């Protein structure tokens, strides 16, 4: 991602001049990697854990589906001759 030191901002690739300079101030533009833009290091070889609220959501969805399955089985048993 292009970064202009003079303007102190990121530029989109199409806005950079063909010679690689900033369209506003004319200084050369540096290329910055996407992981530096986000301020994080790339996670190589790591297995990140799911956040707790995702686990709660999956548990609640599982409990709801289990309840609906029990209701479906009860309904089928009542309506089958």
Give an account of the 3D structure.
- It contains two helices and three strands.
- By secondary structure, it is mostly helical.
- The chain has two domains: 39 residues, no CATH class; 34 residues.
- A three-stranded antiparallel β-sheet has the order 2-1-3, with no helix packed on it.
- Strand 1 and strand 2 form a beta hairpin.
- The longest helix has 28 residues.
- The N and C termini lie far apart (68 Å).
Radius of gyration, in angstroms, nearest whole number: 27 Å
End-to-end Cα distance, whole Å, is 68 Å
Tertiary shape: rod-shaped
How many domains?
2
Mean model confidence by pLDDT: 82
> What are the segments in which pLDDT stays under 50 over at least 5 consecutive residues?
none
The H/E string reads EEEHH
Features:
81 residues, 3-stranded antiparallel beta sheet, 41% helix
What is the strand and helix layout of this fold?
Elements: E1 2-4, E2 9-10, E3 30-31, H1 34-38, H2 52-79
Antiparallel strand pairs: 1-2, 1-3
What is the structure about, briefly put?
The protein contains 2 helices and 3 strands. It is mainly alpha-helical and 81 residues long. A 3-stranded antiparallel sheet has the order 2-1-3, with no helix packed on it.
């Amino acid at each position: 991602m292009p970064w202009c030191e003079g303007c102190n901002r990121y530029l989109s690739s199409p806005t950079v001049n063909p010679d690689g300079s900033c369209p506003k101030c004319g200084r050369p533009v540096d290329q910055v990697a996407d992981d530096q833009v986000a301020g994080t290091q790339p996670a190589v070889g790591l297995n990140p854990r799911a956040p707790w609220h995702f686990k709660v959501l999956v548990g609640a969805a599982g409990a709801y589906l289990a309840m609906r399955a029990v209701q479906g089985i009860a309904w089928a048993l009542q309506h089958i001759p």
